[in-house]
Write a structure and sequence with these properties.
The structure is a single chain. By secondary structure, this protein is an alpha+beta fold. It folds into 2 domains: about 5-165, no CATH class; about 190-315, no CATH class. Helix content is about 40%, strand content about 10%. It has helices spanning about 5-10, 35, 60-65, 105-120, 155-160, 170-175, 180-205, 210-230, 240-255, 260, 280-285, 295-300; strands spanning about 20, 30, 40-45, 50-55, 75-80, 85-100, 130-135, 140-145. The strands form 2 sheets. The chain has a 4-stranded antiparallel beta sheet with strand order 2-1-3-7, with no helix packed on it. A 4-stranded antiparallel beta sheet has the order 4-6-5-8. Helix 7 (about 180-205) runs antiparallel to helix 8 (about 210-230). InterPro entries: Plasmid_replicase_bac (IPR004322). This is RepA.
Length: about 325
Amino acid sequence: MSTASTETWGQMWLPLWPLASDDLLQGIYRTSRHNALELRYIEANPQSLSNLLVIDIDHPDALMRAMWNRKAWQPNAIVENPANGHAHAVWALAEPVTRTEYARRKPLAYAAAVTEGLRRSVDGDKGYSGLMTKNPTHEQWEASWLTDHLYNLNELTEHLTVADFMPPDSWQRTKRKNPVGLGRNCTLFETVRWDVYRVARTIRKRNEHPTPEDQHDLEAAIASLCQGMNATFSEALPATEIAATIRSFYKWITTRYTGWLDSRTTSKKNPPPTTATPADKAVSLVAVRVASPAESLAAVTNSRECRLRFKRQGLDDNDG
């Protein structure tokens, strides 16, 4: 890479303390940004954010595939293994997409769909998680720098739609069977949230106003649901990302969900006991059974809420 390209990469690549490795089979570890750039493989995005959409192209003509017939939406960089022609193609976004904020789950689903469209456009690896990418500054790889333009999701969607690579609305539902990359975050949000709503309403009915114990029980329930779903993924999300997701869920429920905020959710027909015993509280918590991850997955697959909306106005998040 030229000096100018190296500087541009340094501005686009955001991790400050990234995962890195010289041999993925020997494991990955966190290190300083400076040290990471000395190694062959680096973490593509910082924890909780994604501004680089990376596609793994396991074909000997990967460079040609990434450049072919897409002058207006070429990848910013193509990092090729000269030994076999395989490469990583990188598209950089002008605005990062958060992976852990529940209130921003629709832009996340949008980014996941765009990434799938980019993958289809080059016949990329379906199983690539997007976690680690080839370091374009390392001497072992050949990096081609094509543009310093930063894309937005609507822009990429327009090009992918014209080229007939943008996945249909039904893609997100079928992809849930074995989600990878950003799809894992989408699946986690859309599958777990229905059980979170139910548990929140159940806990909320115990008292006229939320108590510290109610808040503790809510957070514990959210943690259990998120961790349970994460355990079903073939490649689990990092613990730090799950922790951030749990905090985001809890914040959204306690500040925006009417089922928690509105005291009228406390049933007048079945008021909670004046002095609740531990057994009473346990019964009230399990009165609405928390479905297993598999059951939740099946239920949410058929939900209209899972349909991706690619129009701009579909990205606001005023619904629950």
